[in-house]
């Protein structure tokens, strides 16, 4: 029931065009494969780190296959060595190469979703041809180009194949939390919690999600220390108390719109995740600017490599700093005290015992299974907004989403009381709201949000610059 409702809400939130915007054109080949990948991410419950890498790999495969049919583009693995004669640079060949590359990558990344990908390949007028290595044909180009991308990525530090021990994407670094679910030994450090499963049938103790991720091979990311990340305050300092107090105060004065914002951007379990959310925005941009398959391939290649790099940086900082989440800090600081805050489903703001404080989140996602600083939402969103700004040549977005009455997963049937329309005039505004939404939701402190935004913008610029170097002579979007 929950999955069905959530899927319906997400579809409603993300696909309503802004007032005054013309009906978008039919999705391109790239858009269709992007959407299939987002559906696979949601269906399989893939987390944000793995999702960002998967999208980057698939769109790099598409780019490298497409590059063989462009006069000046250079693939990431073979450069210009696969380039076909100009007479073959037809729309049909580009579409075929992109579809075969997307298919091969998708099967590698989401093997359980093969029926979905088979259906889309057939819809595109192609049939599976994975053994074709003839580089005079689109399928052969795709297999050779994508095969090399996958070979490199299988050794990129993500542990996709589980060949470094354990299950696919499992940790091989030996990370262990300082705190347990029952005892806080260090109030400056992350604490795993015991939470309900997504289906509500049982409980489990959180494990830090992919703590090895900060050491995954990036696209354009520079050395971690070069970003000058500001360290968050430690327990016992006035700054630590102030940041916790700020979250309690936000909780106490939550408006209905702020609750909507917190949930709209949450992108928790079995969603498209924050990277996927920005891919859905990119689909909207693609349909508006209508630069064809050439523009779409470039857009999603740059965007998703920026998102992958944002995830790598954010998770490196999460492990390096291992910083406490608000739920642990607030419950520790205010144990034995009474505070005024959001009191739970339908109860509004009340006086509550400090050790019972909870973020504005559903129970199964009460606090993420990884440390606080920096905010993944903020880093992902700022990087994505930077790419979209550069691609379009403007910060203008002018996009809206309508959140239906009663659609809340935290207070279902109650919030919002009426439909709420969210609108973003610019990509920057959307990214900033995504970052602040985690403070409304009680998930992040201000430093995790603001530092994530700052570094994310830099990461977006760096990824665009490197992507642009692969575009060749026509380097615009």
From TrEMBL:
The keyword Lipid metabolism does not apply. It is an enzyme of class 1 (oxidoreductase). Residues 58-192 form the DUF6851 domain. GO terms for molecular function: peroxidase activity. Residues 299-461 form the Vanadium-dependent haloperoxidase NapH1-like second helical-bundle domain. SUPFAM superfamilies: Acid phosphatase/Vanadium-dependent haloperoxidase. Pfam families: DUF6851, VCPO_2nd. Keywords: Oxidoreductase, Peroxidase, Signal. InterPro entries: Br/Cl_peroxidase_C (IPR016119), DUF6851 (IPR049283), NapH1-like_2nd (IPR055161), PAP2/HPO_sf (IPR036938), V-haloperoxidase (IPR052559). This is Vanadium-dependent haloperoxidase. It comes from Lysobacter korlensis.
